[in-house]
Amino acid sequence: MVYLTGAGPGDIELLTVKALRVIREADVIIYDRLANPEILEEAKDGCEFIYVGKEDSHHTLPQEEINDTIYQASQTYETVVRLKGGDPFVFGRGGEEGIYLRERQVAFAFIPGITSAIAVPEYAGIPVTHRGVTVSFRVVTGHESSKKHSQIPWENYRTDDTIVFLMGLHRLETITRKLIEIGKPTDFPIAVISRGTRPDQQTVVGTLADIYDRAKDLPTPALIVVGEVVKLRDQLGWFER
Ligand code: SAH
Questions:
Q1: How far is CA 27 from CA 17, 21, 48, 73, 179, in A?
Q2: Which protein residues touch ligand 1 with a CB less than 6 Å away?
Q3: Is 54 a known active-site residue?
């Protein structure tokens, strides 16, 4: 049995009860860079660990090899946990891993995780929705497979939705420029949150015009939040206090 498991955004206590149960039962844990390694201390004696760390912009192991590593593990071990940062379906390629296993008749289950897209802004005191401010939010990738031809449909972002960009810090300058090009005011609120929910979390708040200079050197992982909700941090900020 393979459990495709979300590890949450970083704070080890943001792991689900179900994830913790399968981690304690696992014979092998195949884990990412984004999954907090402290979680592995919960594994039973003799559990094997396989690191298939992913970087933001380059993957240590190509996805095909990760799929095969999981498959091979399922042929050797009773209980396999594939541990991924946040939630497996939010830019986590959990779907691809599931399809690969189904094609090879391997039984699997998904265990949702708390996604960084919501939890990290929350730890910065930025609600992704707020009555009277915004009724919707979207989560998009800031990382594009082709630098030359943008796959991000920028025209769609002419909206009042809160926009959360994952994997976008290295594209921060482009992201802010594009948002200004489609008509957002240069003083529109934006925040970058680095290493969210971890003890060294850092949040930088700014405008589309100045955030790049202020936040470009923050350590990863980091995400970007764009929207009027960013201003609520003045009243709701808590974790860094
Ligand atoms: N499946 C994950 C997201 C994978 S994409 C989830 O649901 O959270 C990886 C991106 O997530 C990173 O580039 C970064 O933008 C974001 N991210 C993950 N953990 C983070 C954290 N603790 N703080 C800030 N951003 C984080």
A1: 18, 12, 6, 9, 47
A2: 9-10, 34, 56, 84-87, 90-92, 115-117, 120, 166-167, 193, 195-197, 221-223
A3: yes
Rounded Cα–Cα distance for residues 116 and 87 (Å): 8
Please give the model's pTM, rounded to 2 decimal places.
Answer: 0.94
Closest CA to 161 of 225, 92, 237: 225
The residues near 200 (Cβ < 8 Å, ≥ 6 apart) are: 219
pLDDT tens string 104-120:
999 999 999 999 999 99
Mean pLDDT of 41-46: 96
Which domains occur in the chain, in start order? 2-111 (3.40.1010.10), 116-236 (3.30.950.10)
| Annotated active-site residue in 11, 32, 87, 161 | 32
Catalytic residue check, 231: no
